[in-house]
């Protein structure tokens, strides 16, 4: 059929080519007729020119005869008997004009003769072209006759092919019948495999149980490994701790030896220590100046300033920070004065503490960075600054430096105490404003007033001390106790610092409580009872007793012992679980071996299916390669056709250019001819006086129009031929592309969706088949009633239930068939025939969807009298299993009578 279609396509192409050749022949005939008409027109023009020449010659002879007669003949235009002088002069002038006219006529005749020669040449060229076109026409006519003979042969072949097609249709019908039988046999196989699938489902359930047990076993193993890992980690931790202790002891011993054997610190460290003290003093001055600008003093004290703003808290924080910085400056001034007057040995011993002293500078660097980034506020901790001056004080006491008699430390200590007094006064003022006015006469109000008075008195005393100190660097001549600075910066400053910290904590907490103490979350003063609770919490936080380290170690050891007992119990439980899991593992070994055998069988089936898939993939690859080769061949043919068409177009373009040149030449000739035959002004004047008439020739417009019409016809022919060839190529390529099968891409989304839909449909069909088989198998199972009187009713109900089940299964089967048909029409559109109002499946698809059943045999078994015969659809595999069951029963009541062989049966 494909070869026949190909031959018919070739016949259609040849017929189209014949039509094109006939059109070309017609165009050539039209060109010949136009050339003949042009030749006739030129011939007529030549004859007219000859007539004009004869008339001019005759007039010339007449004039010569009259001139030869002289005076014997009177001029026809003379008036009277004798000619006057005026008439003679007129006659002479007329003769002159006649002579000029004769000269012009001679020139015109020579020009016309030359034009006639050119026309004769063009006529001969046209005759040669006409002869060549006639020969081409004869060749094309012969080609047409050959093609007609080929068409007749092809028609005979088509008739023969139609007969072969009928025979092929008959064979196709037989083939479809055989395919129907094969499909029926496949359906029988699938139905008989339903029970096998039930068995496989049971096997799968066992496999799932095995997988669950394996997962539980793995989880138990993982738990065991985790417990072992935790125990090993605990042991490693203990070993690491012991090793760390040993290493630490060795390091301490080594460092002790190095310290004992080391030399005295060098002088460079002493210089660095002096520079460090200067840097500490300078940085403290810078920070003091910055915080005084950042946190200004509170000018007006009221409850809104305390509860709604942070000005009071920030001022208290500033005073506390000033205290810390003044203490650093005090100790730095003490160290600077001592290092200036001490012995070299003391200087070197002090320089030995340079690394630790340099580390204390980081606290001031941290404050500087916070000031630079504008992040310093009342929430920042002051522990680092306190550790800085505490380390300097401890180093002063450790080296036994004694007392200082300098003026600078006294001023710095007084400034530090003044800062604490200002902090106490500010916090006490805040607490007094937070307290209710009615409670100010109680103990708390009196306490706040006492703190304010004491802090104010302390500030006045400190101012008087700073004012009464004499100028000068040292105070040796002043009757002051040398231990005054030590007492002020140790006992007095520490006590006042703790008191100020407690008051600051109480003030901050009270301000926070007063900000939300109102009925609607607004600010309100606190009662004496609430403020007493705040005071108690602040004093407990500052003055609470520290826990002894022995108690802390005892609590830690007790906690470790409890954790060890817990881990021991967990390990025992894990070991018991491991023993139980081992017992379960031994019990599952046999089942695992059986599952292993079944897995091997499944792997064999999978390998067979994989080999079949590979074979099919190879076949598809070969088909794809053939399609690629065919496509390349078609592309090559298309390129050759396009090259041929391009050559034809170029030749036609060259012919068109030649015709344009000819048109220009004819236009030039026509213009010259028109100029030659048009009489000049003098000739027109002479024509008025003499009866000589000169007729003009053909105009050049007629020649131009004829040539333009010919050129238009040629252009139209070229364009039509080009469009016809392009359309033919397009139709051929389009038919070739449409004849190709669509490419299959297994990784595309459409292919994946199609496979999922088909897989879902197969699964539903298998489920329906299993339910159908089980319903048939259970159709004879009737639950006997307790009373035999109800037996007919139970049987009737059972039959109705079976009919309902069968009806539901048939409806599901019809719906699945409809879904399968829709999928087939969607992904295999060539399987359907489109009509005006619906789509119908092809003959092959209809035969596959509505297979014919074949009666294989009869199954006989004992039943009740009212039991009716029923049809059971089986596959060859199911039929073989049924025969084996009947053979195993060895009963005369149950028989299977087969009318056909097992190999040829169908459902």
Automatic annotation (TrEMBL):
Its main location: cytoplasm. Residues 1-226, 564-669, 799-826 form a coiled coil. InterPro entries: Dynactin. Keywords: Coiled coil, Cytoplasm, Motor protein, Muscle protein, Myosin, Thick filament. Residues 265-469 form the Dynein associated protein domain. GO terms for cellular component: bicellular tight junction. Pfam families: Dynactin (PF12455). The keyword Cell division does not apply. It is found in: Cytoplasm, Myofibril. This is Dynactin subunit 1. It comes from Papilio xuthus.
């Amino acid at each position: 059929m494909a070869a026949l279609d190909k031959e018919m396509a070739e016949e259609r192409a040849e017929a189209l080519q014949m039509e094109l050749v006939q059109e070309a022949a017609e165009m050539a005939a039209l060109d010949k007729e136009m050339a003949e008409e042009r030749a006739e027109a030129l011939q007529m023009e030549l004859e007219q020119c000859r007539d004009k020449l004869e008339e001019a010659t005759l007039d010339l002879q007449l004039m010569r005869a009259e001139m030869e007669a002289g005076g014997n003949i009177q001029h026809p235009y003379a008036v009277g008997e004798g000619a006057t002088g005026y008439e003679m002069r007129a006659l002479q002038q007329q003769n002159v004009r006649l002579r000029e006219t004769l000269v012009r006529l001679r020139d015109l005749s020579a020009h016309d003769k030359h034009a006639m020669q050119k026309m004769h040449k063009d006529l001969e060229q046209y005759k040669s072209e006409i002869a060549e076109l006639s020969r081409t026409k004869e060749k094309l006519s012969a080609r047409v006759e050959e093609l007609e003979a080929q068409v007749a042969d092809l028609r005979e072949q088509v008739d023969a092919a139609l007969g072969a097609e009928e025979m092929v249709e008959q064979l196709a019908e037989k083939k479809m019948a055989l395919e129907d039988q094969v499909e029926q046999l496949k359906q029988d196989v699938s139905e008989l495999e339903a029970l096998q699938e039930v068995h496989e489902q049971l096997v799968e359930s066992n496999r799932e149980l095995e997988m669950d047990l394996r997962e539980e076993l793995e989880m138990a193993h993982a738990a065991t490994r985790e417990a072992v890992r935790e125990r090993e980690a605990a042991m490693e931790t203990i070993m690491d701790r012991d090793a760390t202790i040993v290493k630490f002891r060795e390091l301490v011993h080594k460092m002790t030896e190095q310290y004992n054997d080391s030399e005295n610190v060098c002088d460079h460290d002493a210089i660095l220590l002096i520079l460090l003290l200067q840097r500490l003093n300078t940085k403290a001055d810078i920070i003091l100046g910055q915080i005084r600008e950042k946190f200004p003093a509170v000018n007006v004290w009221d409850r809104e300033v305390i509860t709604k703003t942070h000005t009071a808290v920030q001022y208290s924080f500033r005073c506390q920070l000033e205290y810390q910085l003044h203490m650093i400056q005090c100790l730095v001034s003490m160290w600077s004065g001592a290092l200036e007057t001490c012995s070299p040995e003391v200087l070197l011993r002090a320089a030995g503490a340079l690394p630790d002293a340099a580390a204390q500078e980081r606290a001031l660097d941290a404050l500087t960075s916070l000031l630079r980034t504008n992040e310093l506020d009342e929430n920042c901790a002051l522990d680092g600054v306190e550790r800085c001056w505490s380390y300097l004080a401890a180093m002063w006491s450790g080296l036994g430096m004694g007392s200082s008699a300098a003026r600078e430390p006294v001023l710095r200590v007084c400034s530090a105490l003044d800062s604490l007094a200002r902090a106490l006064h500010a916090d006490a003022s805040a607490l007094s404003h937070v307290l209710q006015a009615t409670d100010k006469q109680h103990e708390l109000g009196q306490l706040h007033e006492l703190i304010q008075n004491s802090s104010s008195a302390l500030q006045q005393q400190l101012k008087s001390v700073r004012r009464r100190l004499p100028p000068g660097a040292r105070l040796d001549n002043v009757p002051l106790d040398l231990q005054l600075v030590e007492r002020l910066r140790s006992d007095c400053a520490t006590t006042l610092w703790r008191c100020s910290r407690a008051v600051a904590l109480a003030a901050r907490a009270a301000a926070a409580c007063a900000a939300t103490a109102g009925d609607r979350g607004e600010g309100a003063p606190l009662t004496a009872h609430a403020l007493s609770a705040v005071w108690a919490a602040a004093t407990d936080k500052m003055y609470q007793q520290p826990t002894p380290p022995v108690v802390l170690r005892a609590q830690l050891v007790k906690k470790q012992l409890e954790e060890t007992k817990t881990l021991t119990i967990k390990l025992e439980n894990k070991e018991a679980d491991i023993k139980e899991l081992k017992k379960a593992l031994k019990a599952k070994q046999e089942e695992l071996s059986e599952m292993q055998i079944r897995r091997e069988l499944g792997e064999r089936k999978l390998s067979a299916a994989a080999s079949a898939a590979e074979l099919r993939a190879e076949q598809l690859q070969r088909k794809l390669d053939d399609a690629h080769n065919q496509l390349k061949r078609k592309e090559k043919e298309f390129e050759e056709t396009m090259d041929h068409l391009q050559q034809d177009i170029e030749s036609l373009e060259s012919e068109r250019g030649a015709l344009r040149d000819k048109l220009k030449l004819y236009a030039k000739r026509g213009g010259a001819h028109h100029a030659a035959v048009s009489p000049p002004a003098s000739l027109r004047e002479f024509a008025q006086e003499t009866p000589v008439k000169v007729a003009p020739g053909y105009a050049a417009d007629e020649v131009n129009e004829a040539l333009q019409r010919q050129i238009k016809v040629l252009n139209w022919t070229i364009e039509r031929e080009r469009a016809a060839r392009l359309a033919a190529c397009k139709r051929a390529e389009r038919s070739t592309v449409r004849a190709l099968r669509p490419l299959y891409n297994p990784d595309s989304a459409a292919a994946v969706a199609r496979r999922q839909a088909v897989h879902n449909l197969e699964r539903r069909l298998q489920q329906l088949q299993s339910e159908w088989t089980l319903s048939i198998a259970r159709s004879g199972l009737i639950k006997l009633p307790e009373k035999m009187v109800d037996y007919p009713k139970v049987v009737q109900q059972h039959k109705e239930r079976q009919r309902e089940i069968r009806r539901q299964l048939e409806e599901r089967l019809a719906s699945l068939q409809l879904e399968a048909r829709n999928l087939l029409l969607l992904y295999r559109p060539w399987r359907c025939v489109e009509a005006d109002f619906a789509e119908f499946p092809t003959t092959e698809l209809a035969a596959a969807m509505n297979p014919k059943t074949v009666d294989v045999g009869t199954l006989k078994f004992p039943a009740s009298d009212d039991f009716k015969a029923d049809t059971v659809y089986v596959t060859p595999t199911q039929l073989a299993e049924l025969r084996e069951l009947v053979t195993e029963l060895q009963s005369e009541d149950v028989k299977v009578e087969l009318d056909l062989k097992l190999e040829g049966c169908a459902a």
